[in-house]
Amino acid sequence: MTGLVLNDEQQMLKDAARRFMQERAPVSQLRKLRDERDETGFSRELWQEMVEMGFVGTLIDEEYGGSGFGYVGMGQVFEEVGRNLTASPLFATAVLGATLLRNTGSDAQKQALLPAIADGSMIMALAVDERARHAPHYVETRAEAQGDGFVISGRKVAVVDGHVADKLVVSARTAGEPGDADGLTLLLVDRAAAGVTVERTIMVDSRNAAVVTFDQVAVPKDAVLGKAGDGYAVLQQTLDVGNAMLAAELLGIAQEAFDRTVKYLHERKQFGVTIGSFQGLQHRAAHLFSEIELMKSVVLKALTALDQQDDSAAQLVSLAKAKASEVAELATNEGIQMHGGMGMTDEFDIGLFVKRARPMQQLFGDYRYHADRFAADRGY
Amino acid sequence: MTGLVLNDEQQMLKDAARRFMQERAPVSQLRKLRDERDETGFSRELWQEMVEMGFVGTLIDEEYGGSGFGYVGMGQVFEEVGRNLTASPLFATAVLGATLLRNTGSDAQKQALLPAIADGSMIMALAVDERARHAPHYVETRAEAQGDGFVISGRKVAVVDGHVADKLVVSARTAGEPGDADGLTLLLVDRAAAGVTVERTIMVDSRNAAVVTFDQVAVPKDAVLGKAGDGYAVLQQTLDVGNAMLAAELLGIAQEAFDRTVKYLHERKQFGVTIGSFQGLQHRAAHLFSEIELMKSVVLKALTALDQQDDSAAQLVSLAKAKASEVAELATNEGIQMHGGMGMTDEFDIGLFVKRARPMQQLFGDYRYHADRFAADRGY
Amino acid sequence: MSDLEAFRRETRAWLEENCPQSMRSPVMSDKDQCWGGRNWTFQSEDQRLWLERMAEKGWTAPDWPSEYGGGGLSREQVKVLRQEMARIRARPPLHSFGVWMIGPAILKFGSEELKRQHLPPIVRGEIRWCQGYSEPNAGSDLAGLQTRAEDKGDHFIVNGQKIWTSYADKADWMFCLVRTNPDVKKQLGISLVLFDMATPGVSTRPIKLISGSSPFCETFLENVRVEKNQVVGEVDQGWTIAKYLLTHEREMIGGFGRTAAGQKTLPQQAVEALGVEQGRLADGMLRGDIARWELDAKAFEFTAERVVDEAKAGQGVGNASAMLKYYGTELNKRRQELLMAIHGSDAMVWEGEAWNEGALARQWLRSKGNSIEGGTSEVQLNVIARNILGLR
Amino acid sequence: MSDLEAFRRETRAWLEENCPQSMRSPVMSDKDQCWGGRNWTFQSEDQRLWLERMAEKGWTAPDWPSEYGGGGLSREQVKVLRQEMARIRARPPLHSFGVWMIGPAILKFGSEELKRQHLPPIVRGEIRWCQGYSEPNAGSDLAGLQTRAEDKGDHFIVNGQKIWTSYADKADWMFCLVRTNPDVKKQLGISLVLFDMATPGVSTRPIKLISGSSPFCETFLENVRVEKNQVVGEVDQGWTIAKYLLTHEREMIGGFGRTAAGQKTLPQQAVEALGVEQGRLADGMLRGDIARWELDAKAFEFTAERVVDEAKAGQGVGNASAMLKYYGTELNKRRQELLMAIHGSDAMVWEGEAWNEGALARQWLRSKGNSIEGGTSEVQLNVIARNILGLR
Predict the structure, then answer these.
(1) CA-based nearest distance C278→chain A, Å
(2) pLDDT for B157-180, tens place per residue?
(3) Among A161, B366, D78, D366, which has the minimal tally of Cβ within 10 Å of its Cβ?
(4) How many percent of chain C have pLDDT more than 90?
């Protein structure tokens, strides 16, 4: 890729993802899962189809059964996921799980787990936050060395797809105090291990997270991902990848909410004319259009920087996540307001976009978190 | 006064001030002073008229030749000053000087100075800030005890009307370090005293401030206002009164800028219709109207709290100054934008309102300073 | 002792004696509200007693004339009654669109016959009312309503559909805007009519909102017979009454989002959730946004005060209701977004007892409707621009 | 070695030999800009030499055909020339509305005669041009212009008034929009004409702005004779050319407010003025506002990049200029307000050497015009709403 445009391969992936999500996983599917109170909150059948389409293996190297297509590529998939509110464990497993293993896993760990992610047979989840607001260095959960391994105790919240995960990666403290960046260790834990309790939390977006409790959970020595005590840096890398994908998904959400709103402005009549003829709404729509253009640029810039292992990737991810959060909030709020009373009804889809946007804005840090991180990184 | 309405006396004072400023000190007078490059920046003749109208003595008790009319009353005068951009030393002398003497002066100091303020024969100025952004506890200027008095050395900036003052009140450190609230002392200094240098600075609003340098300036013991070392608290009281009057003046500025803008919207034609018929501008004007309504309420609330010596007066002043700064900025910026190219020309008056608003917003703390002070006072 | 003081003493003694102890605590949930009506099930014997005793004195509508069952109190006496009720934290005995909305309209515009028929049952909480204004294709353009009332001599036959009817499924009677003349300017051919919800042809369906279940309903009117004596005011002149009632509604909605007594303020919640470092909220960016909001919220509160004070003093420009509605609802939306940020992932949960069944998220979503119902923010801005600033 | 590499080598060598040393530093003030024209006084002998040498090769207008005095370079060669000039920090040899605006318009729309007459003197910097578009009573409604051109057979007689003419008092010729037909739809009766500023009946007056003196003028046209062969394109068809030029102008203004090379960034200035505590700017509220601005400024910068990249790749929706103009100028206004806040009372001073003669305040005031000139923000939003979103 040269410059801020997609190359042909990336464009093809995007087109394929768009067609697939529209046909196989549109908004109506999320509605169906919700109304039927599906216990997993996603369709296994769809998940297998996403494996076959190659979406799940986008970030996994070919030797482990993936396509090694990179972050810009995966970002295009997530943009389409956002447009269609597609429910699946793609984020928790194919982004967070795959990135952690790829960046820090031992050869044995990669051999054992990456192919299982790529072929859809294993679902993963990352247990990182302990507070309601993202604070990855605030970790009370402890992993005490015992015998040939560790014993983990603690409580994690907002674990996305924790309720269906086969394996969890948990950040635990092998040294230091809550608030320290040093002393954090990432460990692989079987969902089925003794002492692991998973409480499903149904979220406002009709998706799922979980509260996961570890009560004296014993894991072997080789459960450690990377080096014990050095977990924070690799965790940050993974969170950056995660936030870039969240930004891409928010871009899809904002664009789709905006497109539907502009369509409504064209159709809805009041006082004998279409409401899109009112300059008050026109100017707000035009402003929102401009903001979405900015959002597109920062998302693509962050994804590109990750692919190029650019030194400023972390800063650019914070820029992307901050701006994406801000614009998605504006786009979904304007969407409701411009849809008027009809937008307030559950019958219209626009409300589902509002509901999906906020949890994604907050997950791994909201506008304020990333504005602060951006400024600090910029030296002020 | 009961509730948030003016009583009859206050309303009469406001009406008198409005008539007087419109007739005797309208915007054209400021323009004239500017274009003639008047060295004082105000008219002595006008000043005497303001004395005769009783404006100058509004905050001075009757026994010292004033009317003791109170803060709500003086606020009405300042609102009209704001509407007409009236240039005079009213703020520096009749607000800051009079309040300092009234709150902390000894009987002898009051006897000597308050009547001279009330009859217009003496002009005062307050030398408090040393940094470009308001920081009243950041004081490097020192007053060393020497013989029967003090010797002052230091440099003050943004001293409003310092170039015409007969007497200065200066905050100097008799103990502690820059940044400490303790150890500040307020001293009366003759403008003519040896070692005092006043450098006039012509400001963007065609008004004046000064950089005042004190080089080994000797003052007697009785130059101290209040108690040595305890100056910070009384200074804060005076700054609160000052900020309430600045908020009232900003209210006048915002209202006048808004009125002129709405008038322009009614008159100016584009595309064959008045620009006031465009809903995009209508909605912005209506929003601004609402903000100005809020501004009116907080200004009156703060002035009332000062008159009633309410415990929360400081908090309410910060609320008023913050909100007044925010809305005046919006009103003047919208004023320029809605006046279009004509608003950019020096020929139109709207630009003078923009130019006057910013220095007043910043003087003694801008929106951000007072939002911070408000929040801290509210416990967060 | 003045008459008013005597009234205060009597009132205090009467309340002390007649207000059941369990009715002396704040309304905490919908269940604590007493709406009355034919199908009402009292939450408790105390709730029934309290309503009956107050209704007996006419104090469910204290300022209405006593000849229609009201309390017949003066403005000052009503104020004293409210103060004395607040003193012992007495709950309102009755929540009622009858008392708040259609009652005052009937008093002002209705015939003597209508007053005698409808006001006393409202005072006694026997008839519960709902409001039939909005229609699916009208929205902000209320006057564009299409529900038709055909003149059949001594009665009308009404056909059409209403939406956003609060508690239509629980109400006994509806006050309803209908088009009685399609051939004149749209504001001129509208009438306000009253009918029993049990009339054949009336059916309702609850509306589910993005925040979950709601009191709103759709109401379908199919050949509904309405007697001509049930028109409030003149036929075709209903728009004036509708506007009178809308202004009233707008003011109520503009008050949304103030912190209720006993509830923690937004900054207090932030301090609890995030902690304070060196006297300042630990999250600097969030602190800034909270301060901005609170400055505006306080300024708004004082403005509501000032508007009342000015009205009392016979001053003020009037027309404040559009501004209060606009600003108040926008403020509440900002407040709810801040609460979501403060409570983070806890605020994102939708079900489960530990999360109060998603109350935070549901309140947040519900607040989005504040700037739509009762006239959108855009409509309020139009009103300010046209009626106050004269821009058109 | 490719042809382009050969061209690069030649160019580098030529520049090395011909660009005077004093012309190899950034333009720091207006005085360093060379505008040429009949009345130009060169700032230095080097400035004259540099213009003459570049003009000789046609490199003041490198992509124009060499038959009209231009450089005749391909797109790739122009890029190489720019890179090589940037490499030695060579100044532009000529600032010219002729090169930037009317030249390209004549090339695209003008007759062969006009090209031969006007383009070579533009390339050589001999004739300085100004633009006569806006009128006092038109403003955003540019097509509503009232300057009349009366047909007198072989010439027009022009009467009217122009405003916002940059450097009209210094220019030699004007390209000017006039109404040649008042009886058709307003966009249809407009022509673009050229005339010498020395023609009898042309007079100018500089405009003083709120920020002080400015390059803008009013231009008065009283019975000004314009030859018919000085119409660019067809008579009555000038609006198309005007729009072509306006899009161009809009893009230039949208770029305002980027930090120039060597200048301190806004956050750097804030850090210097306020200091840092625990890694964060000492003023938390101001820090938040600066971060908000910088996030938007960076996002805007990348958007400008993306638009160019997409255009190169033949992608993109086009129509980006209105968005860039709108957002860029609003950003710059925010930037200037932040600079005022950062520099506090220092920024409020209007005169005096110690305060750089009020440069901060004057820049701040001048920035208010960015969202007015070249089409107001409101006009840009209209363009986006209509042309991109299809709302009307």
Answers:
(1) 17
(2) 999 999 999 999 999 999 999 999
(3) D78
(4) 82
Check if CATH label 2.40.110.10 holds for domain A125-229. Answer: yes
Give the list of residues 6+ apart from residue C130 with CB closer than 8 angstroms, or none. Answer: C97, C165, C166, C167, C168, C170, C171, C173, C174, C175, C197, C219
The answer on pLDDT for D255 being more than 60 is no
Query: Per-residue confidence at C243, pLDDT binned at 50, 70, 90?
Result: confident
Secondary structure of B232-295 in HEC code, one letter for each residue: HHHHHHHHHHHHHHHHHHHHHHHHHHHHHHHHHHHHCEECCEEHHHCHHHHHHHHHHHHHHHHH
- The pLDDT, as a whole number, for residue C141 is 84
**Are residues A341 and C163, on separate chains, in Cβ contact within 8 Å?**
yes
In a 13 Å sphere around the CA of A350, the CA atoms on its Cβ side amount to 26
3-state helix, strand and coil shares in percent for chain A, rounded to the nearest 5: 55, 15, 30
Chain D residue with Cα closest to B375: D285
Q: How many domains does chain C have?
A: 3
- Kindly give, in sequence order, each residue whose CB lies less than 8 Å from that of residue B378, ignoring residues fewer than 6 positions away: B315, C267, C294
Residues A169-179 have a mean pLDDT of 97
How far is B201 from D361, CA to CA, in rounded Å? Answer: 13
User: Which is nearest to C362 in space by CA: C134, C253, C208?
Assistant: C208
Partners of B289 on chain C (C-beta within 8 Å) are 323, 384, 388-389
Q: Is C273 on the interface with A (CB under 8 A)?
A: yes
* C391 at A interface, C-beta within 8 A: no
The whole-number pLDDT of residue D253 equals 54
Residues B83-89, mean pLDDT to the nearest whole number: 98
Angle (deg, nearest 10), helices A44-53 and A8-24: 160
Q: Do C288 and D285 touch (CB under 8 A)?
A: yes
- Residue of C218, C329, C368 to mutate, interface with A, max A Cβ within 10 Å: C368
What ipTM does the predicted assembly reach?
Answer: 0.93
Instruction: Enumerate residues 6+ apart whose C-beta is below 8 A from C381.
Output: A280, B282, B283, B286, B287, C322, C326
Which residues, in sequence order, are CB contacts of D53 under 8 Å at separation 6+? D18, D19, D93
Fill in the amino acid letter for D248. Answer: H
C344 and C280: one domain? Answer: yes
The predicted model gives B368-373 an average pLDDT of: 98
For residue C48, give Cα distances in angstroms to B248, C28, C51, C94, C96.
Answer: 53, 18, 5, 10, 15
| Fold classification of A8-122 (topology level) | Butyryl-Coa Dehydrogenase, subunit A; domain 1 (1.10.540)
Pick C209's closest partner by Cβ from A272, A344, A366. Answer: A344
Q: Return the pLDDT at C262.
A: 60
Whether residue C284 lies within 8 A of chain B, CB to CB, comes out as no
Strands A167-173 and A184-190 come out as antiparallel
Contact A205, A361 (CB under 8 A): no
Report helix angle B350-362 to B27-35, nearest 10: 80
Instruction: Please report, in angstroms and rounded to a whole number, the separation of the first and last CA atoms in chain B.
Output: 32
DSSP conformational letter for D142: G
Check residue C312 and give its pLDDT: 81
Contact D147, D159 (CB under 8 A): yes
- Give the domain CATH number at C47: 1.10.540
Asked if B290 lies within 8 A of C326 by C-beta distance, the reply is: yes
Does D279 share its domain with D217? no
Q: How far apart are CA A251 and CA A300, in angstroms?
A: 10
Residues linked to residue A126 through DSSP beta bridges, in sequence order: A169
Element (H, E) at D312: helix D284-312
**Which among D287, D327, D391 has CB closest to A277?**
D391
A-contacting residues of C 151-170, CB under 8 Å? 163-164
Is residue B184 within 8 Å of residue B139, measured between CB atoms?
yes
Specify the pLDDT at position C258: 55
Give me the pLDDT at residue C251, please: 59
- Does the pLDDT value for residue D120 go beyond 60? yes
